[in-house]
Amino acid sequence: MSNVPLVDLLAGHAEVAAEVEEGFARVLATGAFIKGPDVGAFEQEFAVFSGVAHCIGVANGTDALELMLRADEMPAGAGVLMPANTFVASAEAVVRAGGRPVFADVDDEYLLLDPAAAASAAGGSDVWGLLPVHLNGQLAPMAALAAAAEEHGLRLFEDAAQCQGATQVGRGAGSWGRAAGTSFYPGKNLGAYGDAGAVLTDDAGLDAAIRELGDHGSSRKYVHDRLGFNSRLDTLQAVVLRAKLRRLADWNTARRAAAARYDALLADVDGVRLPRTAPGNEHVWHLYAVRVPMRDAVLAELNAAGIGAGVHYPVPVHLQPAFLELGHAPGDFPVAERAASEILTLPLFPQITEEQQVRVAEALAKALRSVS
């Protein structure tokens, strides 16, 4: 019996292979490897898809977050508030932009930034920005967080690396804050064939500033008005993203169907806490993450049975060695820390079959019985 991968990138490629091959041939024939026509076309198409005015393609998702903060002239040493349970890139980008991560806990139901915790942490005199993370395929509670940002005079941004196509009360990422950074890492709902990312914004000034910063601080060749760096979306990656974007809505629908199937298959399995969709959210299920006791033992059983389960993320950012200088200790953010020991990500991708999901569910039930 074949293994069930956590993500099947080859299945997605098979659906776009002919279109990508044609696009690559077009780029190779013209030599437009940097700033080729496909880059501008993708930026326009993804902006329309996302419901925002501007999309700026960049080299990766971490750069996207850094660039939007730099473009909005974040003061040196300024605090940027974010949830403790995120990928390290959220905090890394703040530090690279010259700021300081400020963490807050998440709610226990959806594991999204808790507005009450954020409002409490926002009172610090050095907190300048608020960076909610849209986790696993759904948006953080943006109306409440926007209200907290307004009350405390904070700049509101969004980490949208995991939510391409998701909405909240009909609004997508990038339409709530001043800008949103997203990632097109290959395993994302909209994934490139390497590293790539983008910034989404409705602000024309930020659009221009981000483009300039990501192109060596230049808006005209050999004229560098500010100190920038090199972070551009490659034309070949834009070809891939354009082909996949045409299928993204259907792929997200398939992800929702797969998540609903897991809900049914696992409803009566003792010890499994299923993920839930927050009110008002249209989830795109980048990840299907359950919570289980004795997670590491369960994960080992699943992997031994050929199930490509994983963990997102086993150590909260505030406890990572790279951020120990911030002075946090275990117990500072108890919900995020508890979840980090329980989270188990199950295989999910648009092409996953019912047979594969049944096998995953049966293997999970067996693993839980084995370790209990």
Automatic annotation (TrEMBL):
Superkingdom of origin organism: Bacteria
GO terms, molecular function: pyridoxal phosphate binding; transaminase activity
Claim: Transferase is one of the keywords in the record: yes
Active site: 188 (proton acceptor)
InterPro entries xref list: DegT/StrS_aminotransferase (IPR000653), PyrdxlP-dep_Trfase (IPR015424), PyrdxlP-dep_Trfase_major (IPR015421), PyrdxlP-dep_Trfase_small (IPR015422)
Residues bearing the modification N6-(pyridoxal phosphate)lysine: 188
Keyword Transferase listed: yes
Keywords recorded for this protein, A-Z: Aminotransferase, Pyridoxal phosphate, Transferase
Biological processes, Gene Ontology terms: polysaccharide biosynthetic process
Family the entry assigns: Belongs to the DegT/DnrJ/EryC1 family.
Protein name stated in the entry: DegT/DnrJ/EryC1/StrS family aminotransferase
Protein source organism: Yinghuangia soli
